[in-house]
Amino acid sequence: MNKIQELEHKPIGKLIVQYSLPAMLSLLVNSLYIFVDRIFIGNIPEVGAFGLTGIGLTMPIITVIVALSALISMGASSNISIKLGEGKKGEAEIATGNAITLCVFIGITITILYLIFQNQILDWLGLHGQTLLYTKGFITIIMFGTVFNMLSFAFPFLVRADGNPSISAGINITGCILNIGLDALFINVFNMGIVGAGMATVIAQFITVILGFSYFLTGKSTLNLAKNNLVLCPSMVKAIALIGLVPCSNQLSISIAQIVSNYSLNLYGGEMAIGAMTVINSIASVFLMPVYGIAQGFQPIIGFNYAKLQYDRAMKTLALATIYSAIILTAGTVITLIFPVSVVGLFTHESELVNISVSGIGKYMVLLPLATIPTFGSGFMMLTGKPKTAVLVNVLRQSVILATTIFLLPKAIGQDGLWFAQPITDLLASVMTILLFINGYWHVLRRKPH
Prior knowledge:
By secondary structure, the chain is mainly α. The chain has one domain (18-445). 86% of the residues lie in helices and 0% in strands. The protein has helices at 3-9, 12-42, 48-85, 89-116, 118-125, 129-144, 146-161, 165-189, 193-217, 234-269, 271-307, 311-338, 340-345, 351-365, 372-383, 387-413, 416-445. Helix 3 (48-85) runs parallel beside helix 7 (146-161) and helix 4 (89-116) runs antiparallel to helix 7. It is globular, with a radius of gyration of 21 Å. The two termini are 22 Å apart. 56% of the residues are buried.
């Protein structure tokens, strides 16, 4: 049974494991890299707390880059799966080449804009004093490597869409392990501090890009990376953008929420609260990344089967993926609630930062399993011809519900509102997603299975 036949006939549970497990492993390694990277930074003597705060303040910039990377990567990979399902290999190859060109063009543009407006951007984000001193070098190095950042994000998606999820995971894992190793070398051996963490990241991303190009240029791929496919095709760029707009809007909404969050955190808890949120988000990401891996893995399954009008298989994929992910997040929440001091203590021993983080983490993660519903619901909508509804879910979830909640709730209940904003958002966003899903897919839900 070839890869196309598998998508159409193989049992859904086995397909989800086959396509999601490599993505889960690679994203888990990636989240562990972020986890370990921030442990290194947080434990730099006399600098760690400022470094964690600086990372929190500059996260909106990184999130914008992730948003544009997701626009290209997820949009292209979904188009590749759909075109292969329709038997249009040539168009799938155009999507692959155009994705690479878009990453290079947009990455260079972002770097130039940052260098021109660097001081204004950092001031607007709230970096001042010692936090600015310790963070400016780090974020500048990261911004110089934006092209590598975007391409290293894109290649695992392209390789997975080409039908090789294991190689995709291998590329991702290699880059992440290298990143961790370079962190240890630059920070602990060469005493380069937070700047060393930035250099480690860019070098590892560069190696990931080399591995991605090697896959497509050494005959391992099904799709050919021809020079003419690197020339932007307006219709393909539009097709990529239409699907990629959903994850892009989600990340842009997260960036807006981060800006509002940092404002409220600084207002009601000071810079230490921003550092605490950085710690909490790092811990939560370890459990969320496998879920995002499942969300990536189900894309070709749903995209292919929905295009083939096999709605029962598409719906079953969504249901099983949601159940698997809810189990993962429930386990993560329980572990964190039982051992909060031990987990937070990995990042810092600064007593004030530890106390704020421990106080916040249980409140922040109490309804984390609900995050699966808007995540998978919007993803399904993106793949099945309802991009506007998917964008609506993501924008309302982050830019409206979360931003409004984290801005207003602390006014009512004080610092605890900073942490309870996330579970309230997960609850409201889940209810909204379910209602929109029933309304949009009632004609499919009421069909009798074949």
